Amino acid sequence: MKIYSLSGARIAQLSCIAVLLLGFSQTVQAGPTPTSPDYSVAVFANVQSGLTGPDSITSFQGTIWVGYQNKTTPTGGGGDSDIVQFDPTGKVLKDYKVKGRNDGLKYNPFDGKIYALQNEDGNPYLTLIDPVTGTMTNYKYSTPPAHGGGYDDIVFLNGQIFISASNPNLQPPATNPPFGQNIYPSVVKATLVAGNQIDVSPVEMGNDTLTDVTTGASVVSAQSDPDSLKVDPSGNVVLDSQQDGDLIFLNGPGFPNQVGYRLHLSSSSTTQVTVDDTVFPTQAAGTIYVADTPANIVYAITSKVFPPNSAFTSASDTNNYEGRIDLQTGNITPIITGLQGPHGALFVSAFPEVRLDQVASSGSLTGVFRVSRTGDVSQALQVFLNINDNSSADPSSSNTQKSVTIPVGASSATVAVALDSKSDFKEDGSTQSVVVSIQPDPNYQVQSNNLQTGVQVLVLPLPK
């Protein structure tokens, strides 16, 4: 078998990092205030005409997507929500309308679609948006939610889809005051099936026994308010049980050896802290985008010193702020104060995250690939590709280098890669598998090739 390996080399211009860290052109004159010079805050996007209530945030190939709820109700009344795609400077690129209230918005790298959840308290459904073609497809749940409410947020891990089961029917408050005990699924695994239907199965029950992170004791969290979901750098699915002030960490979710942990959150206030969304920075330098829902503003919080293995959250007790969570004790320390009501959050690394996808079938002797990046696009980004012919039996074996430049203002570029000669594909018989991959580089991150891995079988004879 012939293997072609493409590996990213060095970035030609790292000045894009400095540009991002200087902040955005619309600096904050009043309102949110950093508690430390390590952090700065700026307006990323003001409310668009006629839109209110920015909430969930996600990203796709360097663009930022925000769901505006527009005073719709959590059971689906009151009109439409808008899903707005912004470029990295806050300029509107496209606006998608979905019926009901959007609460939960994520890009799925395994199928290349934007998943938008509607109606977190009842009458839920799901909209898939193709960010390339703009096509929108609605899905309905095949059975009514077992917990009686709706679905709030969604994450993707190893090709699987996990959704938080929000607004559950609770046991009387005496069971677990002050809100009551959830005895229904708090996290479910979702599968898209024929007929635009969604099947769900329980992953975490609201009354499952968990291990307390701080004490090591066995505990049962109330899980009365399952809300946002994230995947942390260790591969845990993290559920925010908002009203209870708990983060639930699920290791190996959906597998027989699944283990759950509870981290109870606290602050300097005597009022129980509640959190809406939590992010886990993957690099020291980057930006946290935060939706300040009642202010109708999306802010960008930048820093060069996000600590490793840290978490930051949109929090409220007697105040509203963005804070850093101590993952050992659960204590939250504000980094940005003066917000009106922070909700959805998203971390984007200042270092570009580079990805390689195959975009055309190699029926001939050329393969076409797309190199994509996230983050700042104000500078061109040059990526060198090493093309290795590893067949020892092939006298024309070679190691060549090819570069592709993602231009200013663009999040991706395509490159054609020659696959040597027809004789190469006859070495293994009637078919030849060509595997294309991209390897890590110290100057930028590389996302796994989960979407269109570049693995295909070429059937001989090849076209002339």
Question: Can you describe what's shown?
Answer:
- The protein has 464 residues and is mainly β.
- The protein folds into 2 domains: 319 residues, Neuraminidase (6 Propeller), CATH 2.120.10; 108 residues, Immunoglobulin-like.
- It is built from 1 helix and 36 strands.
- It has an 8-stranded mixed sheet with strand order 8-9-10-11-15-14-13-12, with no helix packed on it. The chain has a 6-stranded mixed sheet with strand order 17-16-21-20-19-18, with no helix packed on it. A 5-stranded antiparallel sheet has the order 2-27-26-25-22, with no helix packed on it.
- A hairpin with a 6-residue loop joins strand 9 and strand 10.
- The longest helix is centred in the first third of the chain and has 7 residues.
- The protein is globular and about 70 Å long.
- The protein starts with a strand and ends in a 5-residue tail after the last strand.
- The N terminus and C terminus are likely disordered.
Total beta strands: 36
Shape: globular
Per CATH, which architecture of the largest domain?
Answer: 6 Propeller
What percent of the residues sit in helical stretches (DSSP H or I)? under 10%
Q: Which assembly state applies to the chains in this document?
A: single chain
**Structural class label:** mainly beta
Number of helices: 1
Distance between the termini: 22 Å
Unreliable segments of 5+ consecutive residues: 1-29, 428-434, 448-464
- CATH class descriptor of the largest domain: Mainly Beta
**Mind telling me the C-alpha Rg?**
23 Å
Range of strand content: over 45%
Q: What integer is the average pLDDT? A: 82
Please give the order of strands in the largest beta sheet. Answer: 8-9-10-11-15-14-13-12
Please tell me the total number of domains.
2
